[in-house]
Design brief:
Strand content of chain A: under 5%
Strand content of chain B: 15-25%
Number of helices of chain A: 21
Number of strands of chain B: 17
Shape of chain B: globular
Shape of chain A: globular
Structural class of chain A: mainly alpha
CATH superfamily of the largest domain in chain B: P-loop containing nucleotide triphosphate hydrolases
Oligomer: heterodimer
Distance between the termini of chain A: 48 Å
CATH topology of the largest domain in chain A: MetI-like fold
Largest interface: A-B, 37 and 37 residues
Radius of gyration of chain A: 26 Å
Number of domains of chain B: 3
CATH class of the largest domain in chain A: Mainly Alpha
Strand order of the largest sheet of chain B: 6-7-8-3-9-10-11
Order of helices and strands of chain A: HHHHHHHHEEHHHHHHHHHHHEEHH
Radius of gyration of chain B: 25 Å
CATH architecture of the largest domain in chain B: 3-Layer(aba) Sandwich
Helix content of chain A: over 70%
Number of helices of chain B: 16
CATH topology of the largest domain in chain B: Rossmann fold
Distance between the termini of chain B: 71 Å
CATH class of the largest domain in chain B: Alpha Beta
């Protein structure tokens, strides 16, 4: 038996087999061991700093030597927020997928939560967290993390939910028929099935997390100046003092962190996740990662797997199985539990109704001037968002199609564009602003540039993907029938990329509204630069502590985003799915 | 002999919001005894899969009860396994892990689990593939893993839901042979096999007992034994006789069914009365398929055996039946004891050109099918000569389940557009009266 088990788990034979065994394994194990040590050290460092005294206006250093520490702090904020998001995602998605009553409320709610501009929460969340932990750094940090969490959790939850709903019926039946325990069902069916969607959405979410983190590491609330040591605050400090050398160092560090994360974390995960792909035959082009191969070869990792994770997994699985066997029959939910749930439901409903009434009463104190500001701001920002989308489409459609039709070019351009896109636009804002001030452009136009910076990439990626998906025989047909250039675009290219373009524009549009909060209003080198807009209204209201206006502006912005999604994008999506779908 | 499973008056229906009830399976009783291969045959839409799921406890009947050894199921899954058409293997688990998964659920330790799983993989001929992932295997190999996973739990009844349908002809034939060999040599730790299929020959080849379901609603049309010795020879006259008989049962939708070839004690033949409906269900056949059938019939001198036709057209019975039904419905052919005869109208259609065929189809549809008469009259009555498709969706809603309704509408559109009874604008979702164009004038002039 043991012989068989060993044969199954043997490592693939490679040329590395010729290196003396002991020497090689030592070489591979040292970096892994070092990485583990560094990780634990950084956790301790962070814990010490968090528990330390409250220093809201921490001096942000200009020195490049401070960058590794700042990068680490920023990264850990993102990491903790991500872990929280993942936990929330699993719970929320699970309940929504399996409880039809909850589903009817939870899914529309998700849609609305997704459209709320996260940055308008910033002041409220920060004040609440600071008053919760008045004497520790933990308060501000928790505020920042909570904010990133609200920025990245929704699409992950939605992805997990829709994966759970689309598990093939026969696979579910097999799990039921063979009496999988809840644990086995989760680890063997649900999580693996959802893995790929969850990973892609995690990547998008983390990119979004950087965007918000850069904005909230340094901000002003009334007369209080909150600063969290990190990459975002470093860049803002550098830009507001006009220190070009520090700006370049900061940007370099930012890009390095993002490239490292991509290479060391996402790529190995994606390569590993290939086994969760539902496909009948193995595809020829499989994503690979040298880091993953390296980890797989490591003796340390293998030993850990054999000694700890596998036996532990076995223990857990058997524990649940034995528990299931003992449980004679699934007891019907007791009356007490049903009543408890009902009471909770009623309490939540009462809370919601009370909250809505209170909010309406609060908002009824708005003056006419406030309403005018809101209306004017909403129209100005609307125009800016439309401008940004039009400009983004105008350059990304031709360029994206050109790249997409040219596989050689796509191979080079795609990773470059990916890096460009993953640099959070908010990190660049102070730098761009500095340039704008130097060339003398106003923020009215300048903020469009800022919006564009954050959103055009979504459109570009989708257009490239769409152009690559147009079948070759259709392209050949258009050549055979001698389509003119105009006809080619009208009959082939635009309809072909339409579904992708819509997807890109939806994401870009939502992102642009959110970004307007940081793009239209700026604290820069001691004074405020702003223009007319809903985003500026939100920022100004939180600056001056006008919570009534802040709430009103947030509601208006959310309402606009939800309305646009429902009235414009959803019908477009439907059209894309029916008329413009390329069926094989 | 005590039955293992007893289904007593089980039925499945969907309650419509308006109070209408759509019956998928009429009250049906069925008992499964140990020591036999039972095949459940039926055209698509007869509720074969639903029946299988009710017997396994995966689905609960709307009324009636399922007893296992005399005890009611109560939402418990009895000691069964299913071999699925789509294999339903977990692609992220190796072959060995897939087979072991049901044993893990039982809390079996690693050593015992490996031993059993490997023995079962040996039995189905997958020795050496333990560490492979399903996507590295061919369809036949995947289904072997499916068999191993099903048998490793040593189920009392092994259910199979169209286990060979997703495989190519040769592989399917090999696997059937292997299954039979394992069964006849008692290498399988199971008492009974219950196989759902739409392949008539497969049923006659494997089964000791065949149950034929009819549709609208699903009900048992015939239930008889096949006392032929294994291995069975496809060309043998008794074999062909059984195949012919099942064809006859499946094609004679309404008539009393004659008893099977050998009068057997246990054979029961039921002809439950079909409920009256205002709209006949349109069989899901394409006009092109109907034309093909009629041309072949004309070539063969006007009549042919259905079994033969299926072979000639290389169609499964599931695909052939709707086509013959459509031809009968349009008055182009008649059916008699498993034979199809072409009618005079059908002959005319087979010999006509493209445009004339449309004309003949249109006349036939308007003469024989109430729904098309209604569409035509309504369109002519309206001043703008258009009605939304939704109108007919609402009308038909009362008669068909949601899924069937969609297929009905698809067929209505397909036939109506072909016969130029109406045009359909998918943008507005409206049917528009077809203007008899110049094409028709030309045909009429001839």
């Amino acid at each position: 038996m043991t012989k068989r088990v060993r044969a199954i788990s043997r490592r693939p034979a490679t040329a590395w087999g010729f290196v003396p065994h002991g020497a090689w394994s030592l070489l591979t194990d040292i970096p892994i061991f070092a990485a583990g040590l560094a990780f634990f050290y950084s956790i301790i460092l962070l814990a010490r700093y968090w528990a330390g005294p409250f220093t809201p206006e921490a001096q942000i250093s200009h020195s490049p030597s401070a960058l590794p520490q700042y990068a680490l702090y920023s990264f850990l904020r993102i990491f903790i927020a991500y872990v929280l998001s993942l936990a929330f995602t699993l719970v929320y998605g699970y309940i929504a997928a399996y409880n039809p009553k909850a589903e009817r409320v939870m899914i529309p709610l998700l849609d609305i939560l997704q459209s709320i501009p996260v940055l308008s929460f910033l002041p409220g969340v920060m004040l609440a967290m600071v008053s919760l932990f008045p004497h520790h750094q933990l308060g501000v940090e928790a505020g920042a993390i909570l904010l990133i969490f609200t920025g990245q959790v929704w699409n992950m939850a939605f992805s997990f939910y829709s994966s759970l709903k689309s598990i093939p019926k026969e696979m579910r039946e097999a799990a039921r028929l063979y009496r999988f325990t809840a644990w086995q069902r989760f680890t063997r069916l649900e999580l693996p099935y959802a893995a790929i969607g969850l990973i892609w959405n995690s990547m998008m979410s983390v990119a979004g997390g950087w965007f918000f983190l850069m904005a909230c590491e340094m901000f002003v609330l009334g007369n209080r100046d909150f600063r969290l040591p990190g990459l975002g605050s470093y860049l803002q400090t550098a830009a507001s003092t006009g220190d070009t050398r520090s700006i370049l160092w900061g940007l370099g560090a930012m890009i390095a962190v993002i490239v490292l994360l991509d290479q060391l974390v996402w790529r190995p995960i994606i390569a590993w996740a290939q086994k969760f792909k539902i496909e009948q035959v193995e595809s020829a082009d499989v994503p690979r990662s040298p880091i993953l191969n390296f980890l797989r070869r490591s003796r340390l990792v293998n030993t850990l797997q054999h000694r700890i994770t596998r036996p532990l997994g076995e223990q857990i699985a058997l524990h649940f199985a034995v528990a299931q066997q003992k449980e004679t029959h699934a007891a019907p939910p007791s009356a007490a539990r049903t009543w408890l749930l009902r009471t909770i439901g009623v309490l939540i409903a009462i809370g919601v109704v009370y909250g809505v009434f209170d909010a309406i009463r609060f908002l009824s104190g708005l003056r006419g001037a406030d309403l005018r500001v809101l209306a004017l701001g909403a129209s100005a920002t609307f125009l800016r968002v439309v401008c940004a989308l039009v400009i983004a489409s105008a350059w990304t459609i031709p360029v994206g199609v050109w790249i997409g039709f040219n596989p050689k070019l796509a191979r080079i351009a795609q990773p470059l564009a990916q890096i460009a896109a993953s640099v959070p636009a908010t990190a660049l804002f102070p730098v761009i602003l500095l340039l704008l001030i130097r060339v003398g452009g106003g923020l009215g136009i300048g903020s469009i540039v800022l919006l564009l910076l954050g959103t055009q990439w979504y459109v570009l990626f989708n257009v490239i993907a769409g152009a690559m998906a147009i079948p070759t025989d259709l392209k050949e047909a258009s050549r055979v029938f001698r389509f003119s250039r105009v006809e080619r675009w009208r009959r082939l290219i635009l309809p072909g990329i339409f579904p992708y373009l819509v997807t890109g524009l939806v994401t870009a549009g939502g992102g642009a509204w959110n970004a307007s909060i940081v793009a239209e209003y700026f604290h820069f080198a001691g004074h405020t630069i702003s223009t007319v807009g809903l985003g500026a209204t939100i920022s100004l209201a939180s600056d001056t502590g006008n919570f009534r206006l802040l709430l009103a502006a947030t509601v208006v912005m959310s309402a606009i985003v939800v309305t646009i999604n429902r009235t414009i994008w959803r019908p477009m999506y439907r059209l894309a799915e029916t008329r413009f779908r390329l069926e094989t | 002999m005590e039955p293992i499973i007893e289904a007593i008056n089980v039925e499945k229906f969907f309650q419509q919001p308006e109070g209408n009830r759509i019956q998928v399976i009429a009250p049906t009783s069925l008992s499964i005894y140990p020591g036999a291969i039972v095949a459940l045959l039926g055209p698509s839409g007869s509720g074969k899969s639903t029946m299988l799921r009710m017997l396994t406890g995966l689905a609960t009947p709307s009324a009636g009860e399922v007893l296992w050894h005399g005890k009611q199921l109560d939402g418990e899954i009895p000691h069964v396994a299913i071999v699925f058409q789509s294999f339903a293997l977990f692609p992220w688990l190796t072959v060995l892990d897939n087979v072991e998964a049901p044993l893990v659920a039982r809390g079996m330790g690693a050593v015992e689990r490996h031993k059993r799983a490997l023995r079962m993989l040996d039995t189905v001929g997958l020795d050496g593939f333990e560490t492979a992932y399903p996507k590295e295997l061919s369809g036949g190999m995947k289904q072997r893993v499916g068999f191993a996973r099903a048998m490793v739990v040593e189920p009392e009844v092994l259910f199979m839901d169209e286990p060979f349908s997703a495989l190519d002809v040769l592989t399917a034939e090999t696997l059937r042979g292997e299954l039979l060999e394992l069964w006849l040599n008692r290498k399988m730790p199971i008492s009974t096999i219950f196989i759902v299929t739409h392949n008539i020959e497969e049923a006659v080849l494997l089964a000791d007992r065949v149950v034929v379901l009819g549709r609208n609603p699903g009900r048992i049309r015939a239930d008889f034994q096949i006392p032929l010795a294994h291995p069975r020879e496809r060309k043998a006259p008794e074999f062909v006789e059984f195949v012919d008989y099942i064809y006859t049962v499946m094609t004679q939708l309404d008539a009393e069914v004659a008893p099977p070839p050998q009068p057997l004690e246990q054979a029961t033949v039921a002809a439950a009365p079909r409920p009256e409906r205002k709209y006949t269900m349109l069989p899901h056949a394409r006009p092109g398929g109907i034309a093909g059938l009629l041309e072949l019939l004309a070539d063969r001198g006007g009549r042919d055996d259905l079994y033969h036709l299926a072979e000639q057209l290389r169609l499964e019975v599931d695909d052939l039946l709707p086509i013959t039904e459509a031809a009968v419905l349009l008055g182009f052919a008649t059916l008699d004891k498993g034979d199809a005869h072409i009618t005079a109208d059908g002959m005319k259609y087979a010999e006509a050109g493209i445009l004339q065929r449309k004309e003949l189809f249109r006349d036939a549809a308007l003469a024989h099918i109430a729904l098309f008469q209604q569409v035509d009259q309504t369109l002519r009555a309206k001043t703008n000569h258009t009605i939304p498709l939704e109108f007919f969706r609402d009308v038909l809603d009362e008669y068909f389940s949601e899924e069937e309704l969609e297929r009905q509408l698809e067929t209505v559109l397909d036939w109506g557009r072909y016969a130029e009874i109406f045009d359909y604008d998918s943008h507005t979702g409206r049917m528009v009266l077809s203007e008899p164009g110049t094409d028709h004038a030309e045909v009429a002039a001839q």
